[in-house]
Amino acid sequence: MADIIGLTGQTGAGKSTAREIFRKKGAAVIDADSVAHDITDSNLDCIYDIVSRFSCLVLDEKGKINRKALGRIVFSDKKELEALNKIIFPYILDEIEHRVLISVAAGAKTVVIDGATVIESGCGKLCDALVSVVADSETRKTRIIKRDNISKNDAERRINAQKPEEFYTANSDFVIHNDSTEAELERNINSVLKNMVLLKNKTAAED
Fold first, then answer.
1. Which terminal Cβ of the chain has fewer Cβ within 10 Å, N or C?
2. Predicted confidence (pLDDT) per residue in 38-54, tens digit
3. Would you say 118 and 124 are in contact if contact means Cβ atoms under 8 Å apart?
4. How far apart are CA 136 and CA 141, in angstroms?
């Protein structure tokens, strides 16, 4: 039976690096953010629902979702973002579940679902464990500025828009504090993989 891991975390905390370490160790990786793009690009039912809620002004000249136009609406109003998420999350969840089944059928022993909203989208119900990668704000700020070549103020705005560390701690089975080196991050991931067996055994006993 494959281990299904949900991987999430704060921007700049090192989630992408953690994903690649899992991949290096043989895990099949499903990029939930990529799935979301695929859904809003090609799923006609989802596109129809988005347009019904936000009007045809969010479409481009080819009838595709104009992400910039939609983004201007939802990222300036939390209620609008919540409305969008309510529409797209069920579609994303169905597609991720489909891709998990394909990965397991292909022989994957570990499947990692990687995404910024793994917890909020309900992906947790597909997972044996949720893993969050977090780091202190100064470390994250430094990484974001270097990664995205943006100003300190822009980096701070991104950090302030994220949920606090307490959210991830409260909703995860494992929390990895990634304030050190990549080697230390890999050691923490090794520990998570070893403890997956204990967690699954505990869950099976409770059931």
1. C
2. 999 999 999 999 999 99
3. yes
4. 9
165 CA to centre of own chain:
15
Give the residue carrying structure tokens 């597609």. Answer: 95
Helix (H/G/I), strand (E/B), else coil: 178? coil
Amino acid (one-letter) located at 62 = K
How far CA 118 is from CA of 14, 114, 124, 127, 200, in Å, comes to 15, 7, 7, 10, 20
Q: Which residue type does 59 have? A: L
Residue 93, both tokens: 């969840």
Q: Among all chains, which residue has been given the structure tokens 């989802």? A: 46
Instruction: Compute CA 206 distance to the chain's CA centroid, rounded to the nearest angstrom.
Output: 28
Contact (Cβ atoms closer than 8 angstroms) between residue 13 and residue 112: no
Residue 178 token pair: 């990634």
In contact, 152 and 26? CB cutoff 8 Å: no
Residues 127 and 200 sit within 8 Å (Cβ to Cβ): no
Say how many residues make up the chain: 207
